[in-house]
Write a structure and sequence with these properties.
The complex is a heterodimer of chains A (115) and B (113). Chain A has 115 residues and is an all-beta fold. Helix content of chain A is 0%, strand content 50%. Chain A is built from no helices and 11 strands. In chain A, the strands form 2 sheets. In chain A, strands 2, 4, 5, 6, 9, 10 and 11 form a 7-stranded mixed β-sheet that branches. In chain A, 32% of the residues are buried. Chain B has 113 residues and is mainly beta. In chain B, strands 2, 4, 5, 9, 10 and 11 form a 6-stranded mixed β-sheet that branches. In chain B, strands 1-3-8-7-6 form a 5-stranded antiparallel β-sheet, with no helix packed on it. In chain B, a hairpin with a 4-residue loop joins β7 and β8. The chains are: A mainly beta (115), B mainly beta (113). Chains A and B meet through β4 and β5 of A and β4, β5 and β9 of B.
């Protein structure tokens, strides 16, 4: 079946512009995660959704970052007034259900470059 | 603070050789530990999961070990192939409360012909 799909795969934007990154999780997966990965670095947690609710948004680095999820499906990560330090790969993952032993299924990410 | 530390940071080996990657964690209480493989330009993919009662688990040429007492895990790769070149990430999940797993920074493995 289809895996986690992210779009666009690459995005170049000018400093100060807003961007929206999209994640289509695997159908039926109730848990959804967003991570940021800077070049050569590990994955940095941003936000976690269970259904359409976000019980943990502790990783969002500033109020310029927001995310929503609708229909227990698609999620959008929005970055307002982008800065050069926002340049990174943004990875989305989904999981079959809320639980400790479920693996995360990752998309291939959106590479964001802020010029 | 719940942390996951991996070593070495990077490793270069010749094709056909074996190697072992290390993971130390302080995440508590412990639920499970996963090893993920991340190819360049792709998202991580789960290789294996270790729960508290498991000491060793194999997945083809990959063998993971867990010592829950010392909070250490290792990933052993046997007879390496060029396609093993990737970042290997150790991920530990707590039991109780948040389902947010804690990621290590990964070990970058390069296999040369």
């Amino acid at each position: 079946g289809a895996g986690v799909s992210q779009s666009p795969s690459n995005k170049v934007t000018e400093k100060g512009k807003d961007v929206e990154l999209r994640c289509d999780p695997i159908s039926g997966h109730t848990a959804l995660y967003w991570y940021r990965q800077r070049l050569g670095q590990g994955l940095e947690f941003l936000i976690y959704f269970q259904g359409n609710s976000a019980p943990d948004k502790s990783g969002l680095p500033s109020d310029r970052f927001s995310a929503e999820r609708t229909g227990e499906s698609v999620s959008t990560l929005t970055i307002q007034r982008t800065q050069q330090e926002d340049s990174a790969v943004y990875l989305c993952a989904s999981s079959p259900r809320q639980g400790y032993n479920s693996p995360l299924h990752f998309g291939n990410g959106t590479r964001l470059t802020v010029t | 603070k719940n942390q996951v530390e991996q070593s070495p940071q990077s490793l270069i080996i010749l094709e056909g050789k074996n190697c072992t990657l290390q993971c130390n964690y302080t995440v508590s209480p412990f639920s499970n530990l996963r090893w993920y493989k991340q190819d360049t330009g792709r998202g991580p993919v789960s290789l294996t999961i270790m729960t508290f009662s498991e000491n060793t688990k194999s997945n083809g040429r990959y063998t993971a070990t867990l010592d829950a007492d010392t909070k250490q895990s290792s990933l052993h790769i046997t007879a390496s192939q060029l396609s093993d070149s990737a970042s290997y990430i150790c991920v530990v999940t707590r039991s109780g409360g948040s389902y947010i797993p804690t990621f290590g920074r990964g070990t970058s493995l390069i296999v040369h012909p």
